[in-house]
Design brief:
Length: 130
């Protein structure tokens, strides 16, 4: 069950502007760099993201109809900056339930389970700058 759309709008307008500069370096955060599917505009979207070195996973807390995912699905891909490192990402795959939760840190998985978040996107890491 996704979080309310109103919260997503608030985060896009207010919270993202505050967290974007920090999310490149904070643990459990990343900034997804992607191109708008209609406008061609470059976007830098801060996300909660986790990496195991081979892939990056993002909980779809607002559902799988989010603009950033649609942009990535209709473009040549995306990059993400996490921990000060930028990685080129491959084609995203949406996974559900335990398959997604098992890739999360246990404390995060517990919170997401309580929130009934059951959809995740997994990006393979194609290359990394570090």
């Amino acid at each position: 069950m996704p979080l309310p759309a109103g919260l997503a709008r608030f985060n896009r307008v207010v919270t993202n502007r505050i967290t974007r500069p920090l999310a490149r370096r904070l643990p459990w955060f990343g900034v997804l760099h992607h191109i708008g599917r209609r406008t061609g505009t470059r976007y830098d979207t801060p996300l909660n993201a986790w990496s195991d070195g081979e892939s990056v996973i993002v909980a779809l807390t607002y559902g799988d109809q989010v603009d950033w995912l649609a942009n990535v699905n209709t473009s040549d891909g995306a990059t993400i900056t996490m921990g000060g490192r930028t990685s080129r990402l491959g084609r995203p795959q949406v996974v559900t339930g335990d398959e997604g939760l098992s890739r999360m840190p246990s404390v995060v998985a517990a919170i997401l389970a309580v929130l009934h978040v059951d959809r995740f996107v997994v990006f393979p890491i194609v290359s990394s700058n570090g």
